[in-house]
Amino acid sequence: MGLKLKMDYLYDGSFEGFLSCVYQNYYEEKASGIYRQDSYQNNLLRSCRYVETDEIHAQKVYEAVASKISEQALKRVYCVFLSCFDGRENIALDYLRLGFRMGYSVDALHSHPVVFEAQRIAQKVSFEAHRLTGLIRFSALSLSPDKELLYARIQPDHGVLELLGEHFSDRLKGDPFIIHDARRGKALYSAEGQWHIAPIDEKALPCRSEQEEVYRRMWKEYFKTISIEQRVNPACQRRMMPARYWKNLTEMQIRRS
Amino acid sequence: MQIFDKLRILADGAKYDVSCATSGVDRKNAGRIGNASCMGICHSWSADGRCISLMKVLLSNRCVYDCEYCINRRSQDVARASFEPEELAELAIEFYRRNYIEGLFLSSAVDGSPDRTAERMLRTLSLLREDHGFAGYIHAKIIPGVSPELIHKIGMVADRISVNIEFATEHGLKKLAPQKKTPDIFLPMKQITETIADRKQLGISFRSYPGSVVTAASDLRYLQPEEATGLSLPPRGKYKERFAPAGQSTQMIIGASGETDRQIIKTSEGLYNSFKMKRVYYSAYISLISSPGLPPLMTAPPLAREHRLYQTDWLMRFYGFRADEILGEGNPFLDLEMDPKAAWALSHLEQFPVEINKASKEELLRIPGVGLVSAGRILRQRRIAAVRFEDLKKIGVVMKRAKYFITCAGRYYGDCELEPAALRNRLINGERCTDRLSLIGDGAQISMFL
User: Fold this and answer.
1) pTM to 2 decimals?
2) Overall domain count for chain B
3) Which of B11, B99, B394 sits opposite A138 (nearest CB)?
4) What are phi and psi of A18, to 5 degrees?
5) For A233, which of B8, B39, B48 is closest by C-beta distance?
6) pLDDT digits (tens, 9 = 90+) for A77-119
7) Inter-chain contact B381–A133, Cβ cutoff 8 Å?
8) Of B100, B299, B389, B447, which to mutate for an interface test with A (greatest number of A Cβ within 10 Å)?
9) Which domain holds residue B387?
10) pLDDT over 90, % of chain B
11) Residue finishing a domain among B301, B323, B354
12) Residues 6+ apart with CB under 8 A from B240
């Protein structure tokens, strides 16, 4: 046999799909990379194969990561997977490979290039999710004269919708709500403490409730009033609350919205 | 009056209160709306760069007191308003549903009498908790002079309660708030600490300050830690409901009554030690009032000084420093050009350089440029592999400061002698480009203290 071609695995974009590829990497043939099928660039020097998502394989890998590496590694890999960086699957794969070799101590190898990269990305993702628990703004939409639906629009850098479900569905269990990730065209739907993620049709949303404008005005007035004139520090404000989030923040809309 | 105008007037009156923390309590939604996250959540940042997490308002700004420094004092000419408990509770819920806020911070001027004011505050909070089923965060301010029964009731509905000490010295309080008496401030603090201790909530509440074991406050004066005598309380029966689960905090005004930094941090240390405060907040005085006892109008707020005090506060709470180590006798003020840890290191050069691969956690934490996270990472990585000099940056150590104070595998990497004057120059000129606060502050300090 001559030159052995490199083997890229392709998957459907789901976390289970990614884990199925990791399974194949260990039980079939070593992967040279894992890529989403819909954004894969074919290359003459590499061969590729689509890996069907297999719930059982995914479950096996999921449990193996938790028990043979650590819960933290699982969380870290999941956050890397949710990030927006190109090649995130390969960063996650490298981390898992190192982890299966070293065990839980991989998490503490902070200066190893693979660990450093995964840690850095995972931190960005979980920080953005944390930030959004504060920066999401709901508007009350009118479902019927005495029933409201809360709707928020976000455009996060990373796919953090999954990380927000628990927090908000517990907090607002009396209010049905939708958090719309406008960048990815999907939304988190929640009612009575249960939530799921599905595509969204913006045109089907009801219109704003009558009271909405009143509370927006009060919130903006409060926001303006609470700042101390003698301490104004726009650089600090921008550092804490980057301008890319402003377009979905009620208080940063200067004109009437 | 419209609720819109009330909100404007009563938020304006509350904005000089600093605390906005929503941390310290983790709670699932046991009511109808709301939960609390232990790490705290900021919802927005106002134009002054301060975070907004709680809706911070006064219940009323009609005050019977006439404290020199206060914008709501009786003789001040400002618009006056009061919320009705019902309308404020509803407003808080509507803001909360829209995720504008993490909860409510409720304070008030002394409207009529302290007890009358506290009753109305309690009514508002009870409406929120009971009628609206609100399980989010509540911070309630205790007004000096409120009866112990009302303090207790407020503590049962709020997450955090605070009594403002206002000034670091008794002299300052006498001069600028003559109607507030020291016992009116320290008795409620003591009651809160004792109730929390009694309910054995201390394990959670007090992790932040590595001081002595639980001591009930023995003296109600402005006490120093060594004077606080040990008086541990015997544990009593179990309580189902928690009293102020996020603990108590307080606030001091900086730069209004001529106190020194040493007096401030000694008082803070005493507060942490004897009252087991979760936080002491510092608020740079903003001169809005013309009075012979106060700094002249237009004096810039001492922001740099406030910043250095917060850094020192952190050193005391998380880094194992005592106030006396940072500012000794005959050293009344913090160095505004340099952070207090670097300043401490420069006067203790005999303890440096420290070997990164051998130092204890306590020693690591005293290296300028090494923080809690990076110290933890160094310790964890050290168990698996030696830490090399080039690893430190990835670990999160600020090398432009740390490199002068460490060795890595026996080698020293600093590019100048371990000598105070030269190092000081390096540290300041390295920091100057990034640390804008110190630039703003210099001017402000000159007008106040020279």
Assistant:
1) 0.89
2) 2
3) B99
4) -60, -45
5) B48
6) 999 999 999 999 999 999 999 999 999 999 999 999 999 999 9
7) no
8) B100
9) 346-449
10) 67
11) B301
12) none
